[in-house]
Amino acid sequence: MLAITGGGTGGHLCIVRSLAQELQARGHDLLYIGSTSGQDKAWFENSPLFKQCFFLDTIGVVDKSFLRKIQALYKQVLCTQTARNLLKKHHIQALISVGGFSAGPGSFAGILSKIPLYIHEQNAVQGALNRLITPYAKCIFSSFKSTEPDPKRVYTPYPIHHSFFENARIRTEVRTILFLGGSQGARAINEFALLCARKLLKKGLKVIHQCGNLNYERVANVYKGLGLLDQVDLFAFDLQLVEKMRQADICVSRAGASSVWELCANNLPTLFVPYPFAAKNHQYYNALEFAKEGLAKIVEQTHLHPDHLFNFIEWLETPKQEGLEIASVSQGLRQKVSSGGAGQIVDRILEQIES
Question: Which amino acids does the record list as binding UDP-N-acetyl-alpha-D-glucosamine (predicted)?
Fold first, then answer.
């Protein structure tokens, strides 16, 4: 049996799901170790992907006050012993850590139990936990070129659900814009969409706006007050988000790792607004790799202004030898990404533990 640990937020949990699906398809039984905090239980409590799931009483350590940090570390220590017992009881052959505070007890337990440890680093900047456990890992899997070099690092495509590739298309004109506020709702992007909507509609563009469950009523009321509610495709959250992406020609989004690679797989040119309080500003560096290659634009939240969006549209509508700039960007995104990331990671792990 193999174990996967980590989570807390959607980006980490997407990787858990992708790797679990790949391993299950190859006939492997799986154990999951997550946390009672964050989104872990919502994703996997009743998931058929795992033989058993365990959610330990842990909280994050980073960006806490001194006393809260001590409390968090104490919980990590207590739960490490629990995780160690679980790994022993289920005869775990290898442990995959995807990072996040949920991964702490399982990762430390694996190290103490001398179980082969594999790390998936989602972001362009290595997370605090992953940095701490890297010396004990067999491999660190990464998709960003900008991540720090390490002899253990193996570059693979990012594990992306096949639906993002299947619904991809090369964009040739700007007719529809998608604002991605995320399932929880990114207030800055929601406010930005409200600020830009009237002018976008006047230009004849269609507006699709995902505002998050917590913000739907407030955002809908603002659109209603502006007299625009019936002209905007507003929704809280949709599990079939890939269909909304397929309809869009450009996007405004945060720059979490899963988001940037899913948008890339969909060939959707994006204006990234990185979350400024992400650990080590990793969202900025996630987007920066795409921006440096001319495949995206970045605007920091403190400087966010409608002019940035309209300048982005103007740039994408610049005539080229063959069509507009948007087609060149969309084609570049298609060339940057490839499918099969989860398969390559699993191949490497199984090759090592079965040899």
Answer: 9-11, 123, 183, 283
